[in-house]
Amino acid sequence: IPGNTGCIARTCAASAVGLHLVGPLGYQVDDTKLKRAGLDYWPYVVVKIHDSWEDFREYFRQQEGEKRLLAFTKRGTKIHSDFSYRKGDYLLFGSETSGLPPEALLDCKTEPFGGGTIRIPMVETHVRCLNLSVSVGIALYEASRQLNYESLQVPSESCIDTAEESFITEDIFA
């Protein structure tokens, strides 16, 4: 939903990591609620939109360097804080209602780029799942902590500095 995406974008801006949105999305990227949830942080996050999982997979394959796809799911086999993150990891999250699509889960479980499935522990009594933006924050900051907050060492001048600039771009931070 737009509110979650805006909150996630704000977390990405605060931690200097890029955000990939993979369609189909349930809203327009110029949605007022999306912009409101991201507040005035949109110029400080690099966003790449992919029309489908196949489009994202092709983009991912073309990226240089070591990289892995890590699926965050309540059925994950490893706990988020016990997992060893590496530079170049892509953290994947699905919708709160349906999770990640089967093809994304399969790609995360198989070679050459699959890094596995990860879960954030929670009591499963009356709560089906954590809020998506909360889950992203938990995972992103655990990965950042393990990598000594390297992404936070990005000089501020590398961020876009004008509110007139569109928050959608073709470039993404590594």
TrEMBL record:
EC number(s) from the headed UniProt entry: 2.1.1.-
Boundaries of every tRNA/rRNA methyltransferase SpoU type domain copy: 2-141
Organism: Cajanus cajan (Pigeon pea)
Pfam families per the UniProt record, alphabetical: SpoU_methylase (PF00588)
HAMAP family: tRNA_methyltr_TrmL
GO BP terms, alphabetized: wobble position ribose methylation
Keywords for the protein's UniProt record, in alphabetical order: Cytoplasm, Methyltransferase, S-adenosyl-L-methionine, Transferase, tRNA processing
Domain of life of the native organism: Eukaryota
MF annotations from Gene Ontology: identical protein binding; RNA binding; RNA methyltransferase activity
Descriptive protein name: tRNA/rRNA methyltransferase slr0992 family
SUPFAM superfamilies referenced in this protein's UniProt entry, alphabetically: alpha/beta knot (SSF75217)
Record InterPro entries: Alpha/beta_knot_MTases, SpoU_MeTrfase, TrmL, tRNA_m1G_MTases_N
